Amino acid sequence: MHAAVDALGNPVHVHVSGGQESDCQHFDRIAEALPAQIQAVVGDKGYDTNAVLARIAQAGAEAVVPAKKSRCQAREIDENLYRDRNKVERFFLKIKQNRAVATRYDKTAASYRAVVELACIMCWLK
């Protein structure tokens, strides 16, 4: 599951993918759902690819993504902004309180996505 949240930790975009697929392959779908005027994109090391960083720069935003160990040159990131990444982690913890989301009992991706979207609606209502 891949998600984007706003500054308050509310879901903006959620989509489901296969568990064996890397995070950076799905960044384009996430970026399309983001508002036009964003100041920073905060992500984990899974999003540290040249294509993702170029897409963030194209949007005119700051990339707050730590460099992987395999990268030759380390990038400086704003540690205060990077601390906001916990809002995404807290969002995942909120929706995984729903047992159907946490254990993925649904057989099809469409059914699972429906349950995830219901959990997201509950986040917005609280």
In short:
This protein is of the alpha+beta class and 126 residues long. It is built from six helices and four strands. The protein has helices at 27-33, 50-58, 79-82, 86-95, 99-103, 109-125; strands spanning 2-5, 11-15, 40-42, 62-64.
What features would you describe in this structure?
This protein has six helices and four strands; from the N terminus they run ββαβαβαααα. The protein has helices at residues 27-33, 50-58, 79-82, 86-95, 99-103, 109-125; strands at 2-5, 11-15, 40-42, 62-64. With 126 residues, it is α+β, with helices and mostly antiparallel strands. A two-stranded antiparallel sheet has the order 1-2. Strands 3-4 form a two-stranded parallel sheet. It is 41% helix and 12% strand. Residues 1-120 form the Transposase IS4-like domain. One of its GO terms (biological process) is DNA transposition. It comes from Hymenobacter psychrophilus.
